Amino acid sequence: MNPQQHTALIKSLATELGFSFCGISKAGFLEGEAPKVEEWLRRGYQGKMGYLENHFDKRLDPTKLVPGAKSVVSLLYNYYPEKDQATDGNYKLAKYAYGQDYHHVIKDKLKVFMNQIQAKIGAVEGRVFVDSAPVHERAWAAKSGLGWIGKNSLLLNRQMGSFFFLAELIIDLELEPDGPMKDYCGTCTACQDACPTDAISEAYVVDGSKCISYLTIELKESIPPEFKGKMENWAFGCDICQDVCPWNRFSTPHNEPAFQPQGWEDFSAQDWEEMTQEVFSKVFKKSAVKRTKYEGLKRNISFLKNNT
């Protein structure tokens, strides 16, 4: 088979495995992204996420991450739920954390994907990634035509909005690259206007240190007092900039059983406030919510309760 046939086969396999979109880029240095990432770090927008300062070269050049890499296969996997569980008067979880931890669910699919490629094509070497290494995921997805980077810094897709996970195969197989698409944000500033902590004061640039997702998940110390009354009851993550994005009117519910809520969906505010370690460990056993740990979730809920 030639690169064109290999590309068609890989896109067909991606569809069979439940991925919504698959795009291809030629592996190489992301020259245009380097100054943007450097400036973002220089401003301190990474907050306490020191790991984002590491492996700068690998983040921008996948051939340093996977020697011999020729192609980056970017994938989108839908997680938009049938029912939005975020209700006024109760604590809220970001939609991506409703079900089982996506890292494990999608990683398993990627391993099957890689095995199928090797079975159909032969000796193909590479690695699979889902938010698990210094891969500049959004840049690669945009480069491969899966969408464009929106003003909220997330990848936006014209057919399905932004409620999806990104994943990649970086492989040593020559494929036909797709081209990037244009920016369709236009003059819209919905995400900037809606952010309660002013984390998107500049279009296309998010100050991570002010983002509610960072404050409730990544930040391990106390939430700074300047965010009192601004968190809108988000206890783990935040969907505000996505919920208001006009492109998300095209979101349709996923059909992944593993992403269904795992037993917390009927919790009252009192249930959240009185949650024990035992309940947390049982309900969030396979969930991404484990990332903040029991103490972190209780810290978030306490901050919200006392500073609404």
Automatic annotation (TrEMBL):
Binding site for tRNA: K220
Keyword Cell inner membrane: no
Pfam families: Fer4_16 (PF13484), QueG_DUF1730 (PF08331)
Pathway: tRNA modification; tRNA-queuosine biosynthesis
Binding partners and assembly: Monomer.
PANTHER family: EPOXYQUEUOSINE REDUCTASE
Function text: Catalyzes the conversion of epoxyqueuosine (oQ) to queuosine (Q), which is a hypermodified base found in the wobble positions of tRNA(Asp), tRNA(Asn), tRNA(His) and tRNA(Tyr).
Protein name, entry field: Epoxyqueuosine reductase
Protein species of origin: Marinoscillum luteum
